[in-house]
Amino acid sequence: MTIVCRIYYESDTKTNATSNFTSLLSSSSKNNVISYNGEPPDLNCNIPQVHAITSQLMLVVNLCVALPGKFTSIFVLGALGSLSDRKGRRISLLLATAGICFNYIVTIIIAEHDISPIFFAVGALVEGFTGGLMSLMTISQAYITDCTTPDRRGVMFGWLQGAILLGMSIGPLIGGWIISITNNILSVFYIATIIFLVFFLFILIILPESLSLEKLNSNAQLQLSKKKPQNLWEQIYIVFEPLSILLPKSFTSTRNNKNDDKNEHRNEKMIFLLANVNAMIAAASFGFQAVFVLYTKYKFDWGTLEIGYYIFWLGESRALLLFFGLPLLVKCFIKDRGTNANDVRSQRMLLDIWIIRIGLIIEFLTFVALGKATIGRDFTIAGVIESFSVIAIPTLRSLLTNAVPAYQVGQLLGALSVIDSIMRIVFPIIMNILYSLVVASAPHVIWSVLSGIFAVAAVLSFFVVVENK
């Protein structure tokens, strides 16, 4: 924002009262205005025109950085999920970790030897083709699914996401501390590379395979029994075929009786509805991330420190809820396990559905409150309350894994990751464009859009039902 502000105040763009990113660039290029003697005051930078241009700039930068890796990952995440079903989880975990390591190494080489930044795309492409962090998360969930019973799966997914949130909140603080000691930002990349290399060796040497050889052979036979592609169109279809599991009539298992037909149809409907709910949650979450920093800077004049504290406390509160709140909730409501496994399963699935519904309602109400907040304190309180909805996300994933056969778990989670990757690319574009258009007149409109998405998701969740066999 500081760079944009400098160019804005020394270009004729200010005179023309425009807030267009391309015209600003052409103006600064024409006048050769890049340097500025002294930073402009923050108050002067915190105006709608500068925010609109910064939003457009962030859109372009994010596209340049995200598209090489995220676009390629769209085509491979589903395939990697299916690969883990028939070849084992470890090989997909190794591929994802190796891709991340390679990307970090490329970044270090570029920075140390002043190589053209265009080579950042090489690291991003390799990470994208190996699945990256999205694949690492997906296959980890598949690994947990292999090792847990359905009634414990949601809690385990919650612990996994809690650990991730804990790392995301503590990581920046540790990174800042390391940079302050070493006075070198690359030291963080060196340490991150070492951590992923150690993790790679841990998977390779210590981590056992979660699927038995017999199970792997069975999964491979079930997947290979599908019809082989006969022409180019069928070969293209195979790239997107893993996504078919999210659509009705995606199961290929033989139906033996009417009850199986009814249960299968019910599960297909559940998967389709929950996949749409998952897509809406991802869209709203990535949309929030795209405009959060700009909005809080413009509306509350928050700086890096305030934003850092906000992210830290939200991450910590969410992690605590996932580590302790979700297990306690399950323990309170699932008391009598009884002797009938089907009754226990139906009871847990019903609880999962209500956790999802209540979580989405909380998301809707708190995002409305975020738009209504006029001071930073109210915005923070709304954010803390919104943290209570975090248990809905791992619960949704757990519920989906209970609705598919074991040999399709990897494919299902891979397909969900593909949808998440698409939303990660598309929705920040939409929200950055929207913010640049409304920041001068009604910046709170972005929260109305996001709360509306959660409202639709909440309504869809009430069409998901569990029927006793």
From TrEMBL:
Keywords: Membrane, Transmembrane, Transmembrane helix. Gene3D superfamilies: MFS general substrate transporter like domains. PROSITE patterns: MFS. InterPro entries: MFS, MFS_dom, MFS_trans_sf. Residues 1-469 form the Major facilitator superfamily (MFS) profile domain. SUPFAM superfamilies: MFS general substrate transporter. GO terms for cellular component: membrane. GO terms for molecular function: transmembrane transporter activity. The chain crosses the membrane at residues 57-80, 92-111, 117-144, 156-179, 185-207, 271-295, 307-330, 351-373, 379-400, 412-438, 444-466. It is found in: Membrane. It is a multi-pass membrane protein. The keyword Transmembrane helix applies. This is 9044_t:CDS:1.
